[in-house]
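Predict the holo structure. Ligand: iron/sulfur cluster.
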Amino acid sequence: VRGISQRVLARDMAWTLADGDCKALTREWNAWETAYTAARTTVERAAALTEPAAVCAGCPVTFECAELAWLSGYTGIAGGQGYRNGQPDDLRQRRPMRRRRDTA
Ligand code: SF4
């Protein structure tokens, strides 16, 4: 899916999210996503997912939500899991950034 088709799909899916179980949880969701994105370890990220994943577990638009996260390059929590730039965050330990070698 590219260009305009991707945008149209994302827009249509965004409408379906109005039926999501998180629709009245904006403040809580912001707090959960803030905790998730700030988490440094796999244990912390898994813990930060516990409450929102429980909400998503009963949501009628989980599939659409996950598709929209992918299409829109979302970073946060959607469809019961974490996303970074539209890719599912698999909870593996993140590698520390490599230092660039000085070339001078
Ligand atoms: S799957 Fe989760 S994040 Fe997506 S609309 Fe439903 S409750 Fe909200």
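The helical segments are 3-16, 26-38, 42-57, 62-72. DSSP finds four helices and three strands in the chain.
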